[in-house]
Amino acid sequence: MYDMIGDLHWYVEPRSRKKGYLGRALSHAILPHLARSRRKQEISIDEENIGEENYNDSLNVAMGAGFRIKRTPQQRTICVQDLKPYKTLPLEITHVGMDRERLAELKRDMSEVVGKLWCIQAEVEMKLGKTYYTRQLQGFVNDLKKYRTLKMEDALIYFEDSQARRKSAIKRETNNLS
Fold first, then answer.
1. Rg (CA), the chain
2. What is the CATH number of domain 2-86?
3. How many CB atoms lie within 10 A of CB 93?
4. What's the CA gap between 159 and 27, in Å, rounded?
5. 46: left (phi over 0), alpha (psi -120 to 50) or beta
6. 46 has which bridge partners?
């Protein structure tokens, strides 16, 4: 889920599609969370960019989560949702974690993105000279290089450690109740 304030974008891995995960996440976690900071949420679904099947699936998810169609310019549908009913819902978020294989896939994906961005920065600098823009872009590339390796690994280790501490605390509480 990518929150663009005025719009939401989502991606569901192909193996997890058509199982209701996104609809439940929208209704039980995402919209209640967003309701704490805004009154309404709009989404745009663009058939030209995502294809007919993904467009229809996304529209069905949006309608199932309570969005209503606001307008449909060309092949793009704008939907809106009043978030007031979600404002008082309790948030119960459970993170499922990630295995090391998936982390490795994401690192490879991140390396490709960093490599492409680096090539763009280099080409722009070669053709237009060193500018504020190319220095900024180089800074982004350098920051992203850090995230593709150490910081992604750190996030997984932190998650695993916090889950282990949580399980240990629950076990202690259960033993104390006995």
1. 21
2. 3.40.630
3. 10
4. 25
5. beta
6. 76
H-state helical runs in 26-151:
31-35, 47-64, 100-128, 132-146
For residue range 38-62, list pLDDT tens digits in order.
Answer: 999 999 999 888 989 999 999 999 9
Rounded distance, CA 68 to CA 73, Å? 15
Q: Cα 129 to chain center, whole Å?
A: 35
As given in the structure block, the two tokens for residue 116 are 């492409």
Token pair recorded at residue 7 = 């719009």
Q: Match 């450690």 to its residue by tokens.
A: 161
Domain boundaries, the chain: 2-86, 100-177
| 119-129 confidence digits (pLDDT tens) | 999 999 999 99
pTM score: 0.51
Chain length of the chain = 178
